[in-house]
Each structure stands twice: as C-alpha cells, then as structure tokens.
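Give me structure tokens for this 527-residue protein.
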Amino acid sequence: MSFLEKPSPGRLLLDDTVPLTAVIEASQNLQSHTVIRRYSDFDVLNSSLMVCGISLPLPPKKLIGNMDREFIAERQRGLQTYLDSITQHPLLCSSLPVKKFLDPNNYSANYTEIALQQVSMFFRSDPKWEVLEPLRDMGWRIRKKYFLIKNKEQTKERYLLSWVDLGPDKFLSDKDLQSAMKLLTSLSIPYLCPLLFSSTSESSALLIRPFSEKGSLKDHICKVKPREIYLKKYCNPKKSQGLELSQIKLYGRQILEGLKLLHDGGVFHGHLHTSNVIVEDGVCRLTDVENGMLGVPSTLRPVFTQFRKINTTESIDVFCFGHLLYEMTYGRPPDSVPVDQHPTVPYTAVVSVLQSILSTEACKSGMPKVSELMQTPLFSDVQLQHSEKLQIKVPSRLKEALKTAKESLEKRLQEEQRVIHQHKRLTRAQSHHGSEEEKKRRKILARKVHNTETLFKLVTLLTITLHVNLFFCLSSGSGASSPPTCPSSPTPPSTTGMPVCLAVCVCMLKCLSVCLSVCLSLCFAQD
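Here you go.
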C-alpha cells in the first residue's frame, strides 16, 4: 500500500503545457490607481523573472501624471507588449510565476509545501534515506519537485528524489501503473537511466534514481551547472555550443537504440528532449521514461499538436528526437517548427535527417520510423559498445494495458488537433475577411453591383418607354385621333407621324442594346 495520500474527490487534472494568453481589454480607476492588475503586480512578476537574464519590455513606473488619459492608453499598450513577450517565450510562458499571474485560481497552491509533506511521509516510512538539500526549480515542470538525498548505508552516493503530480494523460489503472513502475525499477539496460525506487498513489508519484553530477545533455550543451534554476540555465545561455559530428552520431544512435527498445516492448517515452538525456562515460541514457505512464504532458505538446500527422506515441518520439538532434547540432532548440531553412553547418548528413523530421513536408506527410532513422548514413555506421541483443520483457497483461492507455492518449491528442485545426481555419477566414485587400475587393464588388442595378433600372425604363412609343406610333398610324365611323370600314393608315416615332424607337432600341451589353459584361466581371 502506498504511503502517499489520496486526492480529494473530483480533483481536476490540468495540462500545464497549454499556453495561456492575455489581452488587456479595459482599464479601471479604483482608489486613485489605474488597474486591470495593479502595476505593482506586473513589477513583482518582472522581478521574479529577472533571473532568466532576458531584458523584458516592462514600461517604467510613473508617479506624476499617471491619471492622464493619453498616458493610460500608452501604458496599456506597453503592458500588452510585455504580456505578449512573456506568453510567447517557450520557457517563461510555462513558468509558475507567469501561470500564477495569469490564472491564479488554478495555480495558487504551494507545490513545494505539498511535495515536502509527501516526502516527509516517505522518510518516516523508510528511514534509511536522508534529505541533503532541496533542488529548487531545477526543472521546468510546475508540479514536480526535486531533492538531493543519500542512503545512510552508502554515504558517498548521491540520489535524486522527485515528487510529481499525476497528469491528464494518466490512463492506466492504479494497479497497472504500479505494475509498470515495478517493471521500470527492474530494468538494467545501457540506454535507460535506472529507476531505483517508485511509489504511486491516485494523485502523485515519488521516484528515486542516481544523481548525475555532470548533469543532462542540455547542461552539457549550454555549459551550465546542473543544480542551478532552470530559467537561469536555459533562458539565455551565454556559452551554448553544438556538438562535434562524432558526438552527434554516437549520441543520436544511442538515443535511437533506447527508443527502439521501448517501442519494441510496447512502452512509449513521449518526453524526449535534451534535459531528459544523461551522458555518462560516453553513453547516453534516457531518463523520465515513466512520465508517459504517469500522464504528465510533454514539454513539446504545444508544438506537435499543430500537426495532425503527428498523432501516435511513436511519431511523437521521432518528432522529439528531431528537436533534440537540432539542439545537439546548433546548440539551441529551433525557434519554430517547421524548419525549412537550416543555418550553415558542415554536416550535410545531419541536415538531411533534420529535413526528414522537421521540414514542412515531413510535418504534413508524417514522421519516419525509428528503424528508418537508424539506417540513415548519419547513424548506420556507428559502432556501439553493447553489441548484444537487448529487449524489454513486458508481461502480456501489462502490455495490453499499455496498449489501451496509448490508444486513449492518442485519441485525446487527435481530438485536440482537430479542434486546433478548426480554430486555425476560422482564424484564417476571419483574418482574410478583415484584410485591407479583401475590404478593397468587397468595395469594388459593391460598386459594380450598384452600377449593375442602376443599368438594369435604366433598361427597364427604356423598355417601358419603348413599348409606350410603339403603342403611340401604332395608335397614331391607325387613326386613333379620329375614330372610325364604321367598324366594318377601317380608315387607311396615316403617314404623318410615322417617321418620327420609328426613329425614336430605333434610337431607344440601340440604347437598350448597349445597356444590356454593359449589364452582361458587368455580371461576367463579377463572376
């Protein structure tokens, strides 16, 4: 039985990777302060984000004249620019200060305090472990906290204890989740970081694994200390640098080997990125493999949800590998995806693999398989230290449960992608409808319609007039002015007014013909 406490009924599982946006709609005068949120709230937020080393465009404070209408409008525009800059930054937008600022109702809990309570309960149940120090904000995930611990029986070894809240993609039953965690703790595979201990409940999980003093692959690329705050390490690294081709080939092949082992065993990773790869003695080891089973969303979820062909757990892992390969090559993650133009790099074999994963064509048509990537010229000739055949033996019952969980995860992903696709279509239509070019086209069209309607009215008037004239001509020609004395003896037609009437009718027929031609040409021009 797990020592972790159970959640309250009706607990809501939030997806913290869903990006939040903010639009300032109005200002309000309250107790001599112009607020939507008070300026001091923005100032506090900005102070908490200064550790990232990025200059953020918060407008300066003004003490005198801060109630002037023009100043209020200018301040509102400045604060909107500030909000846009932090909500569009890939790391800042998912940080707790920003989430709490934009959505205090869902992010007001003290997650560090919750984690400490759970960890304290664990140490009371297993006293051989001792906390050395909390590793505050070492990772980006809001609901995951880290502690450096040691085993009292092995005082020189250091271990990493992590507490994590379960996520919205947790589709395994509690019993199956415990079986999956037991499987992971039993694995001893070169390309997977060992998981030494795990305990799960209905609300959270506690995990212990070896602590790497050298840090992750991302720490190696950015040349930073592993224990520092992640915003300080990764937001604006000064010394980040891509790896040598030999390292890219070796590390890439080892990571692919780890992914293939997982896929062949019916296990998915879903959280592959440079922070989840540990490098020790020239060997890459995948870590946090359990994240997919715990249901926590991937850091790249906002990216791959934009592409409907990335809709399986295997394709997610391949897409994440392409993202990781780009960062190993250039020393930084891509600014956006798709990537069709690559910076100059002497490794053409790397670029071809990147294009097969991150290009517009690849994102539209689908991801290659892991086995196909292993056969590319970049990775096919890599010599591995562990040549023996490796495999993960998963019990049949657990394999079936994992398959069902994968299908549920993929179904949620595909539904989200469908909603995003519909929203994009609606946004494009609204944008096109409101564009200056479309407004100009509609204005010209309205003018043509107005001219056409005017000409049709003129044609109608000419037609009526023509009929009246013809009637007049025929009436005058039949002696209508002097009615016959006897119906049986009609009067011979008079030729007095005939030439004038006929000339008028011919002229009107010509005008009518011209108007009809113009109307028809305008109609075809509108089509």
